[in-house]
Structure formats: structure tokens, C-alpha cells
Automatic annotation (TrEMBL):
It comes from Laodelphax striatellus (Small brown planthopper). This is Lipase domain-containing protein. Gene3D superfamilies: alpha/beta hydrolase. SUPFAM superfamilies: alpha/beta-Hydrolases. PANTHER family: LIPASE, VITELLOGENIN-3-LIKE PROTEIN.
Length: 351
């Protein structure tokens, strides 16, 4: 475990330097040297407020957050929306009569990279909506990115308040979706809103590394009216314990996910959103799931009384822990084969 983690740290340093040279956006290269990372990790697990107080005067990742709007009319070139600048919204293709999907990437990612790019394409193909991609400085050593969650979430929360209170966007039209650290950013941003509860936040394999069990510092069921979580790399890069209203565990929710081969965790960690993306563009329920207390009971066909579907069309009244199988390559959805044959009679109730 420790060795694997060292490898990941090494990879992240590598990315941090590469990104530093290319974009000059993150201050990571010099910044890391100024940090007592070990101490920081310990504090992140126990007392995040002190970390923020201590670090934000040196480096505030929230200052680098960008909000990029994509619509069907501007599907390839984004329009940047600025917090506090109403003109930037009025002059853009943003249409408040449509649904707004807000997408937050995780560690070592950017809006032009796979998660944000592919989910945005799927949404715009499937529905005429606004997609706002949130970009934040994630090309840093993991601990720095982890520490950034609170401050990026605060910025996103301010932006959401701005959309709702000043641009007149109906909060009921907003859906937040985040991968990895982005899932925690989405959750914390949602819960920080005053007098507003968002209808839905979706977390794709929320990060498990250096997260305490305190719900105020991570995504949690109290962050929105409906919080759905997909776990695919539990006990490793992802958080294993159930933390939403509904928690889906494809193939048991653990690495290594089918088809990933030799996997340090990245493939399994990203599988969470690849499964979901399929459900955006398909009308078929590709991922049926059965409510069950354990994966072994699920496997033996003992849990058939409560079947629901995972993904964009999830039932917002679903509650609890659900298991399912997936394929090992795209398309991953198996339809009724995603639950044991004993449960197929029940599956007919899902359309
Ligand atoms: C607001 O955004 C527009 C672009 O959308 C820009 O032209 C303008 O300068 C911005 N205003 C301020 C005060 O930053
Ligand atoms: C939230 O509601 C309370 C009580 O109704 C009110 O005093 C406060 O101003 C509201 N805050 C915002 C940001 O609307
Ligand atoms: C399983 O799904 C297939 C394809 O959608 C369908 O033809 C078949 O009837 C289903 N089987 C059962 C037992 O529901």
C-alpha cells in the first residue's frame, strides 16, 4: 500500500512540473518545498479548519477556479463565466430556462481531459442544457490538491449563490457532479449554500485518501435532497463506506474492476464515471442494481426484493446500498444481466 502510494506521489510530482511549465497556473513546484507535507496530512485527517487557516495565506487555490460554459451552440469553445459579473452570464449562451449540469474534476485533471470532456459531450448530445465545467488547480502533489478541496468548494458555493440569487437561476434546475476530489468539492459546495438545498449531487468514486469520517469535510447525504454515489475503487483511491442517500457498488465497489488488468487504481477509480456516462445517452436501463447488505448475498441471488437503476435516470427516492455487475469494456451496461438471474422477475418492474 505504501509503495503504491509512493508511486502515485512520484507520478503526481511529474505531472505538477509538466503542468507548471505548460500553463504556469499552479504554483506547485515551489510550493511543495515550502510545505511540511507530513504534518499537513495528519492535520487534514483531524482538523481541517486549522489547515485552511494556516495555508490559505500562502496559497489559495480558490483564486484559480474557473467556470467554463458549454452549450449546444458553443459545444467546443467555452465561454468563461465570472463570479460577480452578471454581464459575463448575460452575454453568454447560458439559458436559465434549461437544466444546468455543473461538473467538477478530480486530482490531476483539467476540463479538457477525459472526465469533464466526455461527460460534457454526453450531456450536450442527450439534452439541450447548460454544462458548466469547473476548473481548479489539481496538477499538484496529492496532499496539496486534497487541501485545496475546502477553498475550491467555497468558491464554487459562492458561484452557485451568484447564479441563484443574482442571475435568477432556479436551484431546482442545477445538478452537481464530481469525480474523486471533485465529488467532495461538489458536496461541500452544496452544503455551504444558505437557505437553498440543491436537488441532486452525484459523486463518482469520492476520494478516500486523507479524508476523515467527518461529514462536514466530505460529500455526504445532507449536502442535497438526493446524493447518489458510485464506488469503484473503495479502500484505495476511493471512499468505501456508504456516504450518500444511495450508494452503488459495481462489482463490489473495489479495485480491480473488470477489464482494468494491472491497475494501480486509476482505471478502477475512473470506471465510476464511465459507467454513468453510458446512462446519459442511452434510454435502456443498462445498470440494474439490487439492494443488499453484502456483495456475497448479492452474488448468491438472495437480494431481489428491491431493484433500482444506477446512473442519470436513477430513482431519486432510492435509499441504501445497491450492488450490480458490469461488463469489462464499453458498453459496460449489461441490462438485466447486471443482477443475478434469480432477480430477473423483479427487474421487469423497471422500465
Ligand atoms: C465582465 O465580463 C465581460 C465578459 O463577459 C467582460 O467584458 C467585462 O470586462 C467583465 N467585467 C468586469 C467588471 O470584470
Ligand atoms: C436566509 O434565511 C434567513 C432567515 O429566513 C435570513 O435571515 C437570511 O438573510 C437568509 N440568507 C440569505 C443569504 O438569503
Ligand atoms: C433480459 O433483457 C433482454 C434484452 O433487453 C430481454 O430480451 C429479455 O427478455 C430479458 N430477460 C428477462 C428474463 O427479463
Amino acid at each position: 500500500m505504501l509503495e503504491l502510494f509512493s508511486v502515485l506521489l512520484f507520478i503526481s510530482h511529474h505531472f505538477a512540473y509538466a503542468e507548471y511549465n505548460e500553463l504556469a497556473l499552479d504554483t506547485s513546484a515551489e510550493f511543495i518545498e515550502d510545505f511540511y507535507l507530513k504534518d499537513l496530512r495528519r492535520q487534514l485527517m483531524t482538523d481541517e479548519d486549522t489547515v485552511l487557516e494556516r495555508c490559505l495565506s500562502i496559497y489559495d487555490p480558490g483564486e484559480w477556479v474557473q467556470f467554463m460554459l458549454y452549450t449546444r451552440e458553443s459545444a467546443t469553445v467555452y465561454e468563461e463565466l465570472f463570479l460577480g459579473n452578471l454581464t459575463s452570464i448575460e452575454d453568454s449562451k447560458f439559458d436559465k430556462t434549461k437544466e444546468t449540469k455543473i461538473v467538477v474534476h478530480g486530482w490531476l485533471s483539467k476540463v479538457h481531459m477525459r472526465f469533464t470532456r466526455d461527460i460534457r459531450k454526453a450531456f450536450l448530445e442527450a439534452k439541450d442544457c447548460n454544462v458548466i465545467s469547473v476548473d481548479w488547480p489539481s496538477m499538484t502533489e496529492y496532499t496539496i490538491a486534497r487541501f485545496s478541496v475546502g477553498s475550491v468548494a467555497a468558491k464554487l458555493s459562492q458561484f452557485l449563490s451568484f447564479l441563484i440569487n443574482e442571475a435568477g437561476v432556479d436551484p431546482q434546475s442545477i445538478h452537481l457532479l464530481g469525480h474523486s476530489l471533485g465529488a467532495h468539492i461538489s458536496g461541500i459546495a452544496g452544503r455551504s449554500l444558505q437557505n437553498v438545498t440543491l436537488p441532486r449531487i452525484t459523486g463518482f468514486d469520492p476520494s478516500g485518501v486523507f479524508f476523515s469520517s467527518k461529514p462536514e469535510y466530505r460529500i455526504d447525504a445532507s449536502d442535497a435532497d438526493f446524493v447518489d454515489i458510485i464506488h469503484t475503487c473503495g479502500h484505495w483511491l476511493g471512499y468505501y463506506d456508504p456516504i450518500g442517500h444511495v450508494d452503488f457498488y459495481p462489482n463490489g465497489g473495489l479495485p480491480i474492476q473488470p477489464g482494468c488488468g494491472f491497475d494501480l487504481g486509476y482505471c478502477s477509480h475512473c470506471r465510476s464515471y464511465l459507467l454513468y456516462i453510458e446512462t446519459i445517452t442511452s434510454d435502456e436501463p443498462g445498470f440494474l442494481a439490487a439492494k443488499c447488505d453484502s456483495n456475497s448475498d448479492f452474488n448468491s441471488g438472495k437480494c431481489c426484493s428491491d431493484i433500482t437503476q444506477m446512473g442519470e435516470n436513477a430513482d431519486r427516492k432510492a435509499r441504501g446500498i445497491y450492488f450490480l455487475y458490469t461488463g469489462d469494456q464499453s458498453p459496460y451496461g449489461l441490462g438485466n444481466q447486471s443482477i443475478p438471474a434469480q432477480c430477473w422477475d423483479q427487474a421487469d418492474t423497471i422500465s
